Amino acid sequence: MPWREPAGKSAASAVGTATRTHSQPDLEIPNMIPSLPRLVGSCLAAALFCLACDVRAAGDLKTALAAVRVPGSDLELVVNAAQSENAPFNQQVKEMKKQFEGEMDAQALAMGKEIEAVMKSIGIEEDSVNYVLASFSIRSLDTQAATPKIPGLLAIAVKTPLKAGAIAKGVTEYAAGKEVAIELKETSYKEVPVLSAVFDMENLPEDIDEEAATFLSDLNLALPADGSVVFIGQSAQVQAAIDRMLGGDFGARSAGLLAAKALVPEKADSYLIFDMPDSFRQMLSMQAQMAAQNGGGNPMLAGPVQALAGLKGAAFSSTTTDKAAMALAGDFEAPENAMQIKAMLDMGVGMVKMQIMNMLAGDPMPMLESIKTSNEGTKATLAFDVTIQDVQSFMAFAKRMKAQAANADGGAPGAGAPGGVPAP
User: Fold this and answer.
1) Residue 29 pLDDT
2) CB atoms < 10 A from the CB of 222, how many?
3) Measured between alpha carbons, how far is residue 30 from residues 23, 25, 27, 35 in Å?
4) Considering only Cβ atoms within 10 Å of each terminal Cβ, which end of the chain, N or C, has fewer?
5) How far apart are CA 322 and CA 364, in angstroms?
6) What percentage of the chain exceeds 90 in pLDDT?
7) Cα dihedral 97/103/105/106 (nearest 10)
8) Greater pLDDT, 21 or 333
9) How confident is the model at residue 15 (pLDDT cuts 50, 70, 90)?
10) Residue 301: which pLDDT band, with cuts at 50, 70 and 90?
11) Per-residue pLDDT at 21
């Protein structure tokens, strides 16, 4: 995965050494006229030095992605889209989406096409994303702040570099077409292009009030690594990430996140890992004590809730081949905690299976048969596979639900309702 600390000498330091070597005066050369090899060497050194300056100014792919982790991070997302996009399962899902387009809600389909057109106008095509990374610090949230401050950052690595001007133009033109007064302002932070939204407070969109507009105005989109990476977050978080990128100050994962990462299969193409904040542990412990109390409590829940309070790290992962192999795993403080969680999962899985089978009305869903729970030492896992047959069964179920809803409303849109009364 791309998210690791850069190692070794930087290009800048190596070039600096080469430049100093070439800058030493050579008094033995007559008339101080440089030879052809020396001239070529000097030109190459100058070019490399300029390239190194560009890297320091705008960062590169490796340092940009390494800088995503925010201080105190306890929730991280990693998606390797480049690895999974050509997997047979994903290719089959794409084909299925085309088949079901005609049965999708017309308004939702039109909105999807609009968004696709806007994304294309700013330089993002289908399958143009290499990685998606996100980092969030729940423990750093200030719940008392008047204005929400989100200690988190989202980063997207794209195959074709993006340009700030194209993004600003695409978004502004789209907003104007919707008769919405909004534009994107282009600025920069330490030579990294930055975009932010500008609202006309006297002419806000119907669904946005002043408080929301103020919050959205503080959201920044930055383009480090010459536009091959996009940072999205509040201005303070985006600037801090750029500082980390340029300064090489990359935070390490916490012990909880390391425990969670160890639960992720080696070949997984996406995962979400979690390190439980102490405030969550305290809350769960209190709930467990309340559940254990006589009269008003639920003693059966006390054990599982107390076990959850001992969670060291959790991970949800997906490994895509001809199917999507999903796993939800947790590492706990003691083996008995893992056993209690497995018992709770077994009970829940049994109930969910019955409900889904009733809803599907006989449609095959291999996923239900693939669900397995296990525990080994301090670890408990719930795993299942999603196949193309599962997706087909779900789509057929959704189609039936849509037809039933239309019948309940007196007929499909545009059709006559029972009794010859036109449907609304």
Assistant:
1) 34
2) 30
3) 17, 12, 8, 10
4) C
5) 18
6) 49
7) 100
8) 333
9) very low
10) confident
11) 37
Are 330 and 379 within 8 A, CB to CB? yes
pLDDT at 212 over 70: yes
Determine the Cα–Cα distance for residues 223 and 221; give it in Å rounded to an integer. 7
Which candidate, 247, 226, 251, places its Cα nearest to that of 153?
251
**Which single residue is written with the structure tokens 């005609």?**
102
The residue ranking higher by pLDDT, 4 or 299, is: 299
Give the pLDDT confidence score for residue 415 in this predicted structure. Answer: 43
The full set of domain ranges for the chain reads 11-21+28-57, 64-252, 253-408
**Residue reference for tokens 């296990």:** 374
> Do 261 and 253 contact (CB within 8 A), yes or no?
yes
Residue corresponding to tokens 């192999």: 325
Cα–Cα distance, 238 to 245 (Å, whole number): 11
| Amino acid (one-letter) located at 213 | A
Tokens of 18: 């080469």
Q: Where are the alpha helices (DSSP H) in 143-277?
A: 164-177, 210-217, 235-247, 255-261
Task: Report helix, strand and coil shares of the chain as percent, to nearest 5.
Answer: 50, 20, 30
